[in-house]
Amino acid sequence: MLKKALVLLISIIALTSCASNEANKINTTNETSTTNESSTTKELEKYQNQIYDTFDTVITFTTYQEKSSDFEKYAKIVKDEFERYNKLFDNYKSYNGINNIYTINENAGEKEVEVDPEIIEILELSKEYYDKTDGDVNVALGSVLEIWHNYREDAIANPDNAKIPTNEELENANKHTNIDDIVIDKKKSSVFIKDKGTKIDLGAIAKGFATEKVRKKLEDAGMKNGIISAGGNVVTIGENPSSDDGMWKIAIKNPNEESEENYANVLELKEAAIVTSGDYQRFYEYNGKRYNHIVDPKTLMPAENFTSVTIITDNSARADALSTALFIKTEEDGKKLIEKEKADALWIDKDYNQTKTDTLNTQR
C-alpha cells in the first residue's frame, strides 16, 4: 500500500521576475514515498528542482524515482531544453550561433532567415490558432506588444511616472500586424517578414509549446511520472505515486489578493496540460487601473473581461493559445471556441465568480 505522502499542489502562477540573480541555478529537494508494483514494494524518492532565468519565470520539475541518477538525467533534459527554447523564441535578444525570433525581426523587410525547424513548427501552429481564434492569437502583434512592454517596464521602474500609450502610437504600430506578412518556407527552413515594421512575438504560445516538447522528451527518455510547472503552464506525466488514486492535484491561484484563500480551486487529473492566463501575472497600474500584459488585437488595449482563465486539455501549446484567446473573448464566445476544441476551461471574472465547463471536475 502507498504510505501517506504530502499532497502535491503546484500553483499555476506565472512569476514575472526571476527568484534569483544567479544564472542557470538549480535547487533540488527530495523525500521518500513507496508504491506497490506487482506485489513488490518499491521505494521511490520524490525529487524536485527549480530552474531560473528561462521564459521570465521559474520552472519547477517534480518526479518520483528509485535512483538519484535517473532524476539527474531527467532534470538535465528539463534544464537544457527550456534554455534552448528560451533562446530560440526570444524576440528581445540575440545569441551567438543562433538564428532566433529576434534575428527574424531584425531582418524584416530585408531578407529571409534560415532557422531551426522548430521555429517553423511553432509559427505554423501560431497561424493555425490565429484562424481558430478569429485573430485573438496573433504572433504578428509584436509591434503593439512592444509598446505596451516598454510602458510597463518604465512604470514598474518608476511608478510615479507611469503612463499608457497614446491611441496614435498603437494605431501606427497596428498597421504592421498582418500575420500573412510572415512567410514560411518549409523546404528551405526559412522565415521572411515582408513588412519591415512587423515583429513576431510568440508570448501567447511559446512557453506552452516548449513545455509540451519537454514533456515529450522526458517520456521518450523513459520517465514514467512527473510534473512540470513553468509559471502558468503545467503538464503532468503518468500517475502520482504519492496518491492512492494516482491523481495529481493542481491548485489554481486565487487572483483575489484580499482573500485569505491562496487557491481559487483545485483540479485532480492525470496526463494533462493546464495553462492559466491572468491579469495578476504581468501588469502595472496607472490612475488606479491595472493594465495587464494580454492585449486584445481588436482594441489594442489589455483585455478586461476576466481576472483569470484556465484551460485544461491534452497539449500545452494548445492550452497556451486557448488561454490567451479565452482571456480576451467574452465568456459566450469563449465557450463556443472551447466546445469546438473539445477542451475544458475555468473562468474567474472581475468579481471572482467562477464558471467552468460542464465536463471539468474540480474540488469546488
Describe, in plain words, how this protein is organized in 3D.
The chain has 8 helices and 17 strands. α1 (68-89) runs antiparallel to α6 and α6 packs antiparallel against α7 (316-328). Helix content is 29%, strand content 28%. It is globular and about 60 Å long. The strands form 4 sheets. Strands 2-3-4-8-9-12-15-16-17 form a 9-stranded antiparallel sheet, with helices on one face. A 3-stranded mixed sheet has the order 1-10-11, with no helix packed on it. It has a 3-stranded antiparallel sheet with strand order 5-7-6. It has 364 residues and is α+β, with helices and mostly antiparallel strands.
Low-confidence blocks of residues? 1-30, 32-41
What form results from the Cα inertia axes? globular
Q: Which series of helices and strands comes N to C?
A: EEEEHHEHHHEEHEEEEEEEEHHEE
Overall mean pLDDT score? 89
Strand order of the largest sheet: 2-3-4-8-9-12-15-16-17
Q: What structural category do the secondary elements indicate?
A: alpha+beta
The Rg value, from CA coordinates, equals 21 Å
Ends distance: 28 Å
The fraction of residues assigned to DSSP E strands is 25-35%
Number of helical elements? 8
Main pleated-sheet profile: 9 strands, antiparallel
Q: Give helix % range.
A: 25-40%
